[in-house]
Every structure is written in structure tokens, then in C-alpha cells.
Write a structure and sequence with these properties.
two-stranded antiparallel sheet, 5 helices, elongated, RlpA-like_sf, LysM domain-containing protein, RlpA-like_DPBB, LysM, signal
Length: 186
Amino acid sequence: MTSPAVRGVRAAALTAGMLAAVLGSAQAGSYRVKSGDTLWGIARAHGVSVQALLDLNGGRTQLLRPGDVLTVPGGGAAAQATVRVAAMAAPQQGTAAQGAGQRGQAVYYGGRRDARTVMTAAHLTLPFGTWVRVTHERTGRSVDVLINDRGPFGVPSRIIDLSREAASVLGILGEGVAPVRVDVLR
């Protein structure tokens, strides 16, 4: 019987192989990162998912810096095929796709104020204005938060920074860091 880790590695290798085959026939180009760019914005502009963009760049685009050069797919049918291939891949920890849960660690910080709510959060790739439900994996408590900032930076297992108020609802003020699941609502 094959372990889940081995099956995960095999699935990732199969996905990478399919992406390479699809993108091999497309004219891959390059994109120079500008100040204010996000992975989500770059992926959307080139017709691919964030995960497909990460796969195309060997997963090295964790933190974008102005001047970095990324490999991007050509347009047309190849880009659409890339999106379909990425959609077939099993969701991996540390990736966020609309409607798919992302698992990792939540931390809290002061938060960036918003006129609509004090329940705010920072996320590396989700667009500003996205509402997500954050569920504490051990207690089952959840809170809906508005993405209005970027972060967390530096520790790949940390997937979301919560405002103090949202962290209080989840009961993680005493823990500081907690295992969570993040689901996109709208």
C-alpha cells in the first residue's frame, strides 16, 4: 500500500509533467515584476491560476520583488489548457484557490482598519475585498474576515494574519499561532 506522502509526490510529478507538456507547445514568455504586483494579479493577467504560475516558476515566487523576472505562458488555448490542468491537480497545503480550503497557521497582528469591518486579515495572494472563513482546526471556531492587507511574510506555513478582533473570536490570542483552514466565501 502506498503512503499518502508518496501518492502526493506522484500526483505533483504528474501535474508538473502535464504542465510541461502543455506549456512546451506554447510560447512561454517572461514578465518583469513591478512594484505593487501580486501573484494573483500576474496569474490573472496571463490567464493561469496562481498554482500554475508557481509551478511554471519552480515554486520560487513566494515573495515578489520589483525587477524579478517570471516565466509566464503565452496566450490563447495553451493558457486555457494550463488553467484546466491546474484545476485537475489536488490542492496542496499552502495554496489558495477559490472555493478550496487552504490549511496552515494563522497569526495575529494589529490589523489594517477598514470602514466596513474590524474583522480583517492579510493574505499573500487573495485579492483585496475577498471574504474568507477562517476555522480553527482544533476548536472548530470560525470567523469571517475581509482581506485588506498583504502578509504574513517569512514563514511559509503561516497563511493568514488576522486582526486582533478576529483572533479574539477564534480564541488564539493566548496561543499566538494556531492551525486553521481558510475557505473563500466571495
